[in-house]
Amino acid sequence: MRGQRSLLLGPARLCLRLLLLLGYRRRCPPLLRSLVQRWRYGKVCLRSMLYNSFGGGETAVDAAFEPIYWLVDNVIRWFGVVFVVLVIVLTSSIVAIAYLCVLPLILRTYSVPRLCWHFFYSHWNLILIVFHYYQAITTPPGYPPQGRNDIATVSICKKCIYPKPARTHHCSICNRCVLKMDHHCLFTIPCYGSWDLFREAYAAIERMKQLDKNKPQTLANQTYHQTPPPTFSFRERVTHKSLVYLWFLCSSVALALGALTAWHAVLISRGETSIERHINKKERRRLQEKGRVFRNPYNYGCLDNWKVFLGVDTGRHWLTRVLLPSSHLPHGNGMSWEPPPWVTAHSASVMAV
Predict the structure, then answer these.
(1) Which of 104-113, 229-238, 242-251, 315-324 has the lowest mean pLDDT?
(2) What is the pTM of this model?
(3) How many CB atoms lie within 10 A of CB 109?
(4) How many CB atoms lie within 10 A of CB 276?
């Protein structure tokens, strides 16, 4: 391996020495001296990326894709308001269809117990979605205080060039560091629908298409005393197509958000965010190479992790903070991460950054 490297770098080093020799004697033109300086600068940059034990191929890839990251961050920043408005419009359209089309149908077709369950569950779900989405887009995420020297910090933000506490990361959308940074998630749509209603609406649309297809032939064959076939009214057509739109939209979003919910349920059970998962994975691999075991210091166990996430301190909080709308603040101040007093077990370990 070393022989192949020397065989490849030998000609390059020879050319560099010749260029340096010409440069020192000041016999080379300015363009050649500029090439020599650029070569030196590139070599310093390459060595700086592989300087410490944390560097490597991943660091080089991150540096190469930095322009792409910058482009994506700026596009998301400009289109963030558009996405929020799109979610509000889609959610409002589903709610409007539910009240104008679904509710009259279930009042005529559902039994009383099923009607009561559907009515109360749908409105409970709608209230929770609207309340928590409003809280999510209006509540500040929390930023580390500026100008204080008594904050326990674990690293320096390479973009803000400012100390940051544990679990704090730089957000390209907010353009500043955010306490316990995870990511921006703009999409949430209430998903409720009925397979029976969708099946009936879809069958009605198929009958409409077949009727419209056979209508010219029927009109040509009928006599003056024959009654024309019944046609669907405009309201019926709009109702059936609205039900199909509602069911397809809710089903597609339910599949996407269902997979996302399952993945974040795993992260919550582990006591880590999506960003910390990548950091912990690299740290786990690094310590494994040294024969050591990495333990997440913020993992209090599956049940306690969910209690911390939901803000459940006592038994009654399952009702007041989980089943009912609640604007309670999370545990801690985001700068120090002491476990809650009700946590049953906690093992100190290496601090993740």
Answers:
(1) 229-238
(2) 0.66
(3) 13
(4) 22
Query: Is residue 275 classed as helix, strand or coil in its secondary structure?
Result: helix
Q: Is residue 185 among the annotated active site residues?
A: yes
Q: Output DSSP code: residue 26.
A: T
Angle subtended by helix axes 302-310 and 234-270, to nearest 10:
120
Mean pLDDT (the chain, rounded): 75
DSSP-assigned letters across all residues of 150-209 = -S---EE-TTT-SEE-TT-EEETTTTEEETT--------------HHHHHHHHHHHHHHH
**Contact between 60 and 46 (Cβ < 8 Å):** no
CB 280 within 8 A of CB 272: yes
Q: Which of 45, 185, 191, 250 is catalytic?
A: 185
How confident is residue 1, by pLDDT bands cut at 50, 70 and 90? very low
Distance CA 159, CA 161 (A): 6
